[in-house]
Amino acid sequence: MADEEEKLPIPPTFLEKLLFYTTATFVLLAIFSLFAFLFLVPFVIEPAFTTIFMQFDPVAALCVTTEVKQLFGVSNCSWASCREGCTKDLFECTQIRVNYKLGYAPNISATEYEELIRAERSLRKDYEYENYESPIDKIDPEMEQQELEDIAPTGLQGEDSEWYFTGARLFPNVKGCGYPPILNCTVFYGKYKPIGNNYTCYYSRIDPGLVITELDMWQNTLNLVYAMAIPIPSFIISVIYLTFAYFKIYNTEDESEQAPLQSDAEAMATGDDGKPTTPGSDTFREDLACFGHQLKLQLANDKPKDGFESNSPPISNSASLSGTKSSFVNA
Fold first, then answer.
1. Which keywords appear in this protein's UniProt record, sorted alphabetically (predicted)?
2. Which string of b and e fits 63-98 if b means at least 16 CB within 10 Å?
3. How far is the C-alpha of 46 from the C-alpha of 308, rounded, in Å?
4. What pLDDT score was predicted for residue 130?
5. Do you find a cis peptide bond into 181, omega within 30 degrees of 0?
6. Higher pLDDT among residues 111 and 65, named by residue
7. Which of 28, 74, 93, 110 is the most buried (most CB within 10 A)?
8. H or E element at residue 170
9. Total Cβ atoms within 10 A of residue 202
10. What does the pLDDT look like over 170-186, one tens digit per residue?
C-alpha cells in the first residue's frame, strides 16, 4: 500500500496549468495569424495596394458603353470585365469597352475645369518627343496601296474630341474579379453591358485605359490596415512569447530537475578529497569493495532459506566422523 501511494501522480499546480494554457494559446494564435495573413495577401492586401498605386481619380468620370465582345477560348480571353473567382482559367469571357470624359468637382467652375483638361492633355516635359519615331514612317510601301478599314480611334483624344479616352476597359474593381455576395457578375453585366448606357466611372492616372465602376479609398485603406495590423502583430507577439518561454521558463525547469543528477554524477566522479576518481586510485578500490560487500548482503537476504534447506541433503558431523573411522579400520 505504501508503494502504491508513492506512485500516485502529483497534481499540477495552478501556475503550471496557467503556463500550459498560455503557451497553447500563443501557439494557436501564431498558427492562425500566419494562415490568415497568407489568405489575405491575394484577396485583400494585394488589391488594396494596387488600387493605391494606380492612382484612381477620386472625381468620377462620365462613361458610356461602346463595345461588348463575347469570346471563347483561353487564347482569346486575355482579360474579362468581370469574373467570379480570381484564380480559375478563363474559357469564356465578356469584354466591355467604354468611352469616358472627365467629370469635375462641384466646387470648381467650368473655366477651371477646362484648364484642368488642357493640363491633362498637354505635352509632358519629361517625355523625349525628339526621339519619337512615328509608326507611319515604318509602313511597308505595299501596305500603302491596300485599302484599310475605318477603325474607330482609341486612347487619349485631342481637345477637339468630346471624349477624354475611348476604348477603355471596364472592370468592377482593380482586379476585375471577386466572390459572391460582394461581386455578382450577372448583376454587373446586366447594368453595364447594354450599348449606350451612361454611368459614372473612375479612371487611373497611371493607366488611363483602366476604368472601374466603384471606388472607395477610405474603405480600401481601412481594409488594408485591418488586414495587416491584426495578423502581423499577433504573429510577432506569439513568436516573442514562445521564444522567451522556451529559453527562460521551460529551460529553468529542466535545469532544476537535472541538478540532483548532475550533483550525484559529480560526487561519483570525484572522491572525498575532491580529486578525480580513477581505476587505480584508493577511493575507487574502496568504493568497489563496499559495493561488492553490499551486493553479497543483498543476495544473501533475498535468497529463500526454505528452498536452500530442501534442496541440500542434511549432513551430520557424527555420521561423517563414524564413516571416516570405519574406513580407516577396514584399511
1. Membrane, Transmembrane, Transmembrane helix
2. bbbbebeebeeeeebeebbbbeeeeeebeebbbbbb
3. 88
4. 52
5. yes
6. 65
7. 93
8. strand 165-171
9. 23
10. 999 998 988 888 889 99
What would the grid cell of residue 94 be? 465578356
The cell 496557467 sits on which residue? 18
Q: DSSP secondary structure string, 263-304?
A: HHHHHHHB-TTSPBP-TTSHHHHHHHHHHHHHHHHHHHHHS-
Whole-number Å distance between alpha carbons of 286 and 290: 6
CA dihedral 217, 223, 228, 229 (to 10 degrees): 100
Q: Is 93 helix (H, G, I), strand (E, B) or coil?
A: strand
Mapping DSSP to helix (H, G, I), strand (E, B) and coil, where does residue 196 land? coil
Question: Residues 226-234: contacts with CB within 8 Å, 24+ apart?
Answer: 227/37, 227/40, 227/44, 227/45, 227/48, 228/45, 230/33, 230/36, 231/33, 231/34, 231/36, 231/37, 231/40, 232/33, 232/37, 234/29, 234/30, 234/33
- The alpha carbon dihedral of 96, 60, 188, 38 has a sign of positive
Whether pLDDT at 64 is above 90: yes
Q: Residue 208 is inside which H or E element, if any?
A: none
82-91, 92-101, 147-156: the lowest-pLDDT one: 147-156
Say if residues 66 and 99 touch (Cβ distance below 8 Å). Answer: yes
Of the pLDDT bands very low, low, confident and very high (cuts 50, 70, 90), residue 248 is confident
Poorest-pLDDT segment among 40-49, 225-234, 235-244, 249-258: 249-258
